[in-house]
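Example record

One chain of 394 residues, shown exactly as stored in the release files.
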Amino acid sequence: MSSAPTSVAEQASGVASHSRTITVPAFARVALLVANFAAQIVPLWMMHELGQGWPIFITAGLLLGLVPALDHVLGQGGYKFDLGVSEQTFRRLLMFQAVMLFLTFAAVVAVAASGRVPLWASIFAVVTIGIINVHIPVVAHDFGHKMDRKNRMISNAVCAIGGLGYFMPQHVMGHHIHVATPEDCASARFGQSSYTFIVKSFIPEVRGGITLEAERLRKRGLPVWSLHNDVIVSYAMAVGIAAVLVALLGWIALPFILLHHASVWFSLMLNDYIQHYALMRELLPNGRREPQSPMHSWSADAPLCNLMVFNVQRHAHHHARPKLSYQGLEALEEGPKCPTGYFGMMVLALNPPWWHHVMDPLVVKYAQGKRERINVDPSGERRLAKLLAQYEAA
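Predicted structure tokens for this chain:
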């Protein structure tokens, strides 16, 4: 394998040269967003009208089953999208998606709180929509990487839909600085299961978002307890949304709102687990970590998933160009590649034995058998030693 690029310029130039160009006009993207929305809202309406829980399996089957399966069949390989869509049009698509996310959130809480469906179905529906609503941090993410106040306020509002007010400060000022190091709570270690990672990372992520936002304001001479604080603003919005829903639906809506937010958080953390699992930037002789490169992110190029989540699977390019709109992200030749798209990887990550069977040998392969390139948890040391020995023998 060739050596990893060490600068943003080199990373950005690593775009795959053999790509299949698929120009997707704006109306087709809108149609896809509407289809995504329909796959959630129609089964929820059926649940309410029929008083039964089975329609939610349509949503789960389509978005968490059929889409990953089709992506696996279509394969990966340098797809290019939206070549004719302007930046303004892309902003509108993101706003349209944000509205759809809010409506599905409100709809599932309304159905669950109505008492018209069995309790198990209410819980399953809220969890399913919450997991699918991992789109919330994706949309907020694209706005939040812009530096102006308007984009940050939009990002705060989108994060409020899922109760993720801490996310953007932690992501921008924490994760992007310390990615693929033991210091980054959003970078999973070799040997960790997804469940262990999620439980251990939640409090550090929330604390990091609160602390980093406070530091940002102090450096600018602004009061921490004020409307300048993005964490406070976003959570105030989340409380306001919850208050309106409780006023309309009754107190029974509150536990379902909290369950939705917990499911969004779980789905977000599951994606964090996937995106940098076991990858580590080497420690240089001067005591610093090597610069970030495509070698420190797991990327994928499954076409349907990329269309639905705005190319977020091209994660290596995002870390190389964090302010670049998602529609501009490309598939880089360098760096670790997921065996399937992120939707399929989420299913894989929920089964730890299957995950370790598939992913751990890939980690050793992309690290070229070098222990110093692998971020390992103490629980994974013995397994890593065995795999390194096998790699060396081969």
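Notes: Residues 8-393 form one domain.
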